[in-house]
Amino acid sequence: MTVERITSRKNPFVQHLRSLESDSAWRKEKREYLCDGHKLLEEALDKGAGIRCVVWKDTPGTVPFTDEVRQLVLPAELFDYVSPMKNSPGPLFTVRMPAEPEPVFSCAILLENVQDPGNVGTVIRTAAALGVDTVLLCGACADVYSPKTVRATMGAAFREKLIHCTVDEARAYADKNRLPLYGAALSARAEDIRGIDLKKAVVAVGSEGQGLSGELLAKCDGEIIIPMTPGSESLNAAVAASIILWEMGR
Question: Model's pTM, two decimal places?
C-alpha cells in the first residue's frame, strides 16, 4: 500500500483540497466533498461511503484501505493549511458525492432557506436518530456537503436520504408518496402540533428569521405550531425541527 508525501502548498492536490473546503461549485463539479476526523472516518467506513482519499498528519495511520483509496501524508503546517478545522489531529478524507436518491419515503422533514450549516447538519443528525430517513432541502439552504454541515451531522450524512427540490417538486413528492404536507408557521390558522398525527407526513421548517415562504405555505395541506410560553421568540430552526421530528417519530 503506497502512501504519498506532499510538502508544497503549490501542489495541485493541495489546491484541490482547499477548493473542496471552501467552494461549493468545485465540490459539485468534482462530485467530491471533504471531511475531517477519526469519528467521521469510522462512520464513513461503517456506512460504505465512497472514500476517495485519506490525508494523514505527519505520519500514516493504521486503518486498512484498499489500493483504490489514495493515501497521503502532509507535514503538520501544510495539513493545517488544508484542514477546515483549527489544530485538527486529522485525518482528512474525501468522499464521492452520491447521486440523489429516488424521492420515495414514508415521512420526511423539509428545510427551506435554512442557511446555517450547523442547523442543517443538526437536523440531518436528529432525523437519523429519530427514524426519519429523508431530508428535503428547498431554496437557499446551506450546502449539505460543506465540511461544517457534514461535521454537524456526526456521520448521519452518510446514511440519510438528502434530496434537493423546488417547492413544486416538494408538493409532487408528498403527493407521490400519499403524504400530507404541513408547514411550521406562526399564524392564526396553525394548529397545535400535539393534535396532529405527523407519523406519515412531510413537515416543512423555514429559516429562523423569515420562516416559510408564502409560495411553500400555499402548497401546504395545513399549518402547525409548537406551543410556547406567551411572549417567547420563535425557536431556532434546528430546535424547532428537532421537536417536530420527535413528534413524527413518537
Answer: 0.93
